[in-house]
Amino acid sequence: MKLWLSPTKLKLFEECQRCGYDDVLLKLKRPRSPFPSLPNGLDRDVKHYLDRFRGTLPPELSHLDGHRMMDEQSTINTYREWNGLKCIYNKTVEVPSHVGNRKITHTLLLNGGLDDALYNDTNQVVVLDVKTKDKEPDDDYGMLYYQPQMNSYGFMLKENGFDVADYGYLWYWWPTGIGEDGKLTFAQKLLTMPVDLTAIPAQLDAIATNLPPVSMEALKYRKLFPSAVDCGHCSYIQEKTDNENAEKDSLAGAN
């Protein structure tokens, strides 16, 4: 079967296999709260700013000796689309059938939107992702929340023929105040991140191993993707289901 995935979906699978499966296979998504558009606007403006320095570096990144912004503007424009950077990963697995085990191939399509990239002094591609926050992030903040995303971008770039570095950067921007002229001021900080090019294939293999042969059997295979112990969404669903069942039993007993 075919499965469409993204860095966000893979992170969801990492947080809770059941929520990831429900989202991708059953189209049962976690509730989402409204998201402010201001970070998106800042993200857009930083990207436009970076476009002015193709083949060089902006002043804020001038300390990155031996690096330069990716030269090819057309490539960056394509990869910035929400599904512009993509690759196909095929995994053959054995599934039981009435005539014994048979082999089937799952096709996992991974796509996402890359903010930008650099070349280092050996012409390896270095992932650069722009982030916004309300305050200065701790040095380990990126690895706590964005490691799967960085690994995903690195893997997709590798599958598209690039020699990818084993590190990348998160470029954080946060507001520091409003001047007398009414202009909002920002500070920025660069976090160095490891990029593991083997992590995503291992995760895709684990997902594919337990996928149903066809989408019609998705509900049957759901049990192979357990809920995370600390998943608040799954806990809520289970508690709600238990309460509804208890209420039904109570009403049945009263009758």
Q: Can you tell me about this structure?
A:
The chain has 255 residues and is α/β, with parallel strands linked by helices. It has one domain (2-224). It has 9 helices and 8 strands. The protein has helices at 7-15, 17-24, 38-50, 73-80, 141-145, 147-159, 199-209, 218-221, 232-254; strands spanning 2-5, 68-69, 85-95, 102-112, 116-119, 125-132, 164-178, 184-194. A 5-stranded mixed β-sheet has the order 2-5-6-7-8. It has a 3-stranded mixed β-sheet with strand order 1-4-3. Strand 5 (116-119) and strand 6 (125-132) form a beta hairpin. Helix 1 (7-15) packs across helix 2 and helix 1 crosses helix 6. The longest helix has 23 residues, at 232-254. The protein starts with a strand and ends with a helix. The model has no long low-confidence stretch (mean pLDDT 93).
Q: How many domain units?
A: 1
The total strand number stands at 8
Order of helices and strands: EHHHEHEEEEHHEEHHH
Query: Would you tell me the overall average pLDDT?
Result: 93
Proportion of residues in helical segments? 25-40%
Question: Strand share of the residues?
Answer: 25-35%
Shape: flat
> Spatial order of the strands in the main sheet?
2-5-6-7-8
What can be said about the biggest beta sheet?
5 strands, mixed
Radius of gyration: 22 Å
Secondary structure class reads: alpha/beta
Q: If helices are DSSP runs of H or I spanning 4 or more residues, what is the number of helices?
A: 9
Sequence stretches where pLDDT stays below 50 over 5 or more residues = none
Distance between the termini: 47 Å
